[in-house]
Amino acid sequence: MDRRAFLGASASLAGVSSIPHLTGCNQVQASAERLVVEPSAIRLFDSQPGPTKVWTYNGQVAGPTLRMRQGEMYALDLFNKIGQPTSLHWHGLRVPFEMDGVGSITQNGISPGQSFRYAFAPPDAGLFWYHPHMNSEEQVAKGMFGLILIEERNPPPVDREVVWSLYDWGLDDDYQVPGKKAFQIWRGEEVYAKHSAITTDGQAAPDLEMRRGERVRLRIANTSGNRRYALKFEGHNPWVIAWDSNGVIPYQLGDQPLIIGTGARVDLILDGTGEVGQVFEILDLFNRDFEPVPPWESPEQTAARAAERVTRIRYLDTPAVRPLSELPPPTAPIANPIPVPDLSAAELIEIELGQSMIPVREIPKIGPMAAVLAEEHGVSMDTEVGLWTMNGEVLLEDLETYNCIDPVPAFECKIGRTYKVRFKNATHVDHPMHLHGHTFQMISRNGLAYDRVFMRDTFTLFADETVEIAFVADNIGDWMIHCHRGMHQHGGMMSTFRVT
Ligand code: C2O
Ligand code: CU
What we know:
Distance between the termini: 52 Å
Structural class: mainly beta
Oligomer: single chain
Radius of gyration: 22 Å
Bound molecules: CU-O-CU linkage, copper (II) ion
Largest sheet: 7 strands, mixed
């Protein structure tokens, strides 16, 4: 194989950045990128009579892909032109506390008409994404998300890269994003989508066109508000080379579906093993095979659950790029500079994920909002709602300001020490859990130690599972720890941990 050709191909994908090289964190940036969040309208389905109202970054859904350089200062001004406060969080990036973009925790919410400058030097390379961290159940659902690419200094050799943000549009009868009210979320009322569209960049997914013998790096971020995916690549056996932008010893999927929790990212090597003219499906099996059956679902509905197409792989009518025998086993990206947990000295923290039914009047800390809620929805203060909990506690946002109400850290860490966190899922559904400011190592699942190193910032616990992770607390601040399914996050399953 011509290794130089391989390298050349991937080098041509290098990010173009106009951000000047700055040397100090406290230096004032001469230039910053601009991101304006404002209302717009787009069409997703040919059949829709009128456009879907969305909130866009710079007029686009997904927002523009931001390109940064590992270890170099980056600055961006966010301008808020939607009629409610917002903030910008850099999912997976280990940024300083003040730049983490969690409204009311790391900064004040950016009010309508206001702007905020974010500036930091991202320590790690890879695929990340950005989204608001206030009322995100609604804001992400309306289209507020985008990718971040930080080029690796020496990327694994491939012919070409394809980057997807898997996103699920759930639209109502009128092809609009259903406004989910907090109360509905807390009651667990699904606002059923009539029109669902899986997209790979905010718009309908085009076929993935491939050539025999070609090596593609397929980089996928799950930027959906609530949806999880279990991908099946018909006729192919992709290699996983990274999770959440951190290289793993490459392994092939075989018969296993690729489960991507909300917020997670995965890097695959997809080799063109098909023949000219062949077409293969890329399917999502999550709903069919992994979504538990809720009590209100009828047996007919359950039986009708089907695999859903994400897109297709279609082989072009072109000569093979190279014989398949010339494709070596792939390599992983080089490791990011993440501190290695010292398990011999780790302090154990236990977190139980739960659910509890309580009357509206007893929703913790919401005070007079309880009466307003009950009134608005025409129910009594005794109506029960289901909240999602961490160690029995909930963290909720105020319904007007979207500020977190009285956050109390779930645990405290001393800078530089290793913490092992044992999560126990005492609920009947899966939770993609995410920690801010830190990247952690997967230690064990249901008592079985991991056989290789997985460094993650988001991981999924299925019903009744117990998972241990470990990390070095090396970033001072109050960091979010939460489920990344919007319905759960905004139904209480959020907390913070404090590093001092
Ligand atoms: Cu993707 Cu708390 O965030
Ligand atoms: Cu959850």
